[in-house]
């Protein structure tokens, strides 16, 4: 089955152009999001659960289905593992063809390269900061606040909420000190 998916890139985008392209591609069913949010995609989730082996997912352009290279790669891998093809009309990509598969393998390698570069830069930056005597993470709470919080806790006169408000020590931090 050829299944289309649309999502506006911005809140005021008209989906007519996307719908016309999907209809021209002979999509048998079209899932249409009303908002551009990637967090709440009801139609997308419904589409994913309805997909079967041999289906083809068609979008107007990559941005309709993913907002990052990483997300796009993960989605294409998921579809591929389930023997579902992917087509992006304007990007001229079809994973059922050798060219489409090659394109996504290249994108995947570029995405991994990008991840590796960011990771190496982060490690180098942390190492440089360490050499300069700086440490990462949140600043530690002053010992007197910790001792005060512990004293309040052991007195059994205060609730956890009262202790955290009075000392500025979070509930999690308080319990971590209590476990030591």
Automatic annotation (TrEMBL):
<protein>
    <submittedName>
        <fullName>Resolvase</fullName>
    </submittedName>
</protein>
<dbReference type="InterPro" id="IPR050639">
    <property type="entry name" value="SSR_resolvase"/>
</dbReference>
<dbReference type="GO" id="GO:0000150">
    <property type="term" value="F:DNA strand exchange activity"/>
</dbReference>
<dbReference type="Pfam" id="PF02796">
    <property type="entry name" value="HTH_7"/>
</dbReference>
<dbReference type="GO" id="GO:0003677">
    <property type="term" value="F:DNA binding"/>
</dbReference>
<keyword id="KW-0233">DNA recombination</keyword>
<keyword id="KW-0238">DNA-binding</keyword>
<dbReference type="InterPro" id="IPR036162">
    <property type="entry name" value="Resolvase-like_N_sf"/>
</dbReference>
<dbReference type="Pfam" id="PF00239">
    <property type="entry name" value="Resolvase"/>
</dbReference>
<dbReference type="InterPro" id="IPR006119">
    <property type="entry name" value="Resolv_N"/>
</dbReference>
<dbReference type="InterPro" id="IPR006120">
    <property type="entry name" value="Resolvase_HTH_dom"/>
</dbReference>
<comment type="similarity">
    <text>Belongs to the site-specific recombinase resolvase family.</text>
</comment>
<feature type="domain" description="Resolvase/invertase-type recombinase catalytic">
    <location>
        <begin position="1"/>
        <end position="133"/>
    </location>
</feature>
<dbReference type="InterPro" id="IPR009057">
    <property type="entry name" value="Homeodomain-like_sf"/>
</dbReference>
<keyword id="KW-0614">Plasmid</keyword>
């Amino acid at each position: 089955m050829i299944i289309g998916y649309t999502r506006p890139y911005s809140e005021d985008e008209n989906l007519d152009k996307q719908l016309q392209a999907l209809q021209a591609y002979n999509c048998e069913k079209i899932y249409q999001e009303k908002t551009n949010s990637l967090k709440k995609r009801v139609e997308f989730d419904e589409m994913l659960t309805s997909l079967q082996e041999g289906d083809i997912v068609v979008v107007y352009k990559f941005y309709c289905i993913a907002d990052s290279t990483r997300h796009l790669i993960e989605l294409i891998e998921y579809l591929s593992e389930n023997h579902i093809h992917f087509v992006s009309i304007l990007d001229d990509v079809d994973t059922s063809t050798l060219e489409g598969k090659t394109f996504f393998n290249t994108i995947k390698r570029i995405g991994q390269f990008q991840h590796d570069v960011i990771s190496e830069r982060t490690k180098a930056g942390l190492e440089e900061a360490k050499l300069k005597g700086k440490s990462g993470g949140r600043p530690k709470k002053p010992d007197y606040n910790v001792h005060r919080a512990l004293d309040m806790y052991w007195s059994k006169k205060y609730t956890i909420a009262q202790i955290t408000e009075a000392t500025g020590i979070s509930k999690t931090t308080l319990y971590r000190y209590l476990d030591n």
